[in-house]
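Methods: holo model generation. Sequences were used as deposited, without trimming of termini or removal of tags, and paired with ligand SMILES retrieved from the corresponding compound records. Each pair was processed once, and we did not select among multiple samples. The sequence and zinc ion SMILES for this entry were:
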Amino acid sequence: MLTLAELGNSRMLGRGAVESSLVSHLKKTPYTVSVVDLVHRPGEMREKVLDISEPEGFGNAVIGVKQGSNVHIDVRLESLHDGILVSGTVDVDAEGECVRCLTDVSLPVEVEFQELFAYSEDEAFDYTVHEDHVDLEPVVRDAVVLALPFQPVCQADCLGLCPQCGVRLLDNPGHQHEAPVDPRWAALAGLDAEVPQDDTEKR
Ligand SMILES: [Zn+2]
Ligand SMILES: [Zn+2]
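and the model returned the structure below.
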């Protein structure tokens, strides 16, 4: 029989083993950048330009960066005492549909980012240096996704679609239908001319 204390210890050992297996191997993607020349050299700095063909695509439900889109990244990597400070700018085109008229929308997104990649595996840090590399992918994705609109429009004054026949109203200026006659009022149509007079008399 295990005592409670022993049980606690074995659980902690088990969990530790799982965690170390999760962080063991560096998965290299186009977004992983070597910082081997900067690690533990505070004061050293390097700038880099990346042009990445986005491997998977990402975004919100209505607009996003498609797989294969060019992601242009200007990045500055600075060595600090506790890690590598990564700052830069992403330029990319997001694609989606106008929420009013459903035509395709291509929206240039330019957004800045800055994160510290710590040497320590401490939970206090969201990002860490792994095997002398930093992975810009989650940083770039988060920055771009936060900058995406939830209601993209093809142009600010898009009039949307005709609710009756579905034509795009910007393409059909002056488009209208005959006003539908509500059958409940049809019988009173002949009284139209008198209605405004009644109204003014009451005031
Ligand atoms: Zn539109
Ligand atoms: Zn119509």
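The first strand starts at residue 32 and ends at 34.
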